[in-house]
């Protein structure tokens, strides 16, 4: 992580996460690496499930006050999607609701480093940031090539203590994504090969990972 922060030319990291990940000690484990390399950081740990547009605006204000120049998202899909949205709104004016849809983000977002703590959403490698429109109580998304994280850091050790129900449900989420990739009309040979391999790996290891969260082979 420190190497990637430095390669982005950043001086300070803005860490976006949720209270559960913070209480689990994962944030401290990761920020200690920044401490060791004398990289300054600020932590925003108020992310909720499908974070609302108001929460994103508040996080953007805190980012600007911190003067951070790289965003580090740690957690499940909501934390990573919030981190991506915050990075985009740091360099694009207005509300997150102004950018709902595809290809509306014009200015390059701050670099985002995405560190997932579940296996389900794939947000660390997607061009979407999903959140809730607080006014309409609807789930919406900002999409586009600039929304891809600059770096996804996938460390299965961060999932070892994930509770069994979350291991199972996020693993089934990953399986559903792989199946829909194979069965939709836009499937092509490369995506089909990747999806079929994903189905094979999930089918062979999810049950083991749910039964024993510290089964490293199954987690990987």
Provide tags for this entry.
single chain; 220 residues; alpha/beta; five-stranded parallel sheet; three-stranded mixed sheet; 8 strands; 17% strand; globular
Beta-strand content estimate: 15-25%
Mean pLDDT rating: 96
- Structural Rg: 17 Å
The unreliable regions are none
Number of DSSP E strands: 8
Largest beta sheet, briefly?
Answer: 5 strands, parallel
Order of helices and strands: HEHHEHEHEEEEEHHH
Assign the structural class, choosing from mainly alpha, mainly beta, alpha/beta, alpha+beta, or little secondary structure.
alpha/beta
What would you say this structure looks like, in words?
The chain is of the alpha/beta class. Helix content is 44%, strand content 17%. The strands form two sheets. The protein has a five-stranded parallel beta sheet, with helices on both faces. Strands 4-7-6 form a three-stranded mixed beta sheet. Strand 6 and strand 7 form a beta hairpin. The two termini are 19 Å apart. The model has no long low-confidence stretch (mean pLDDT 96).
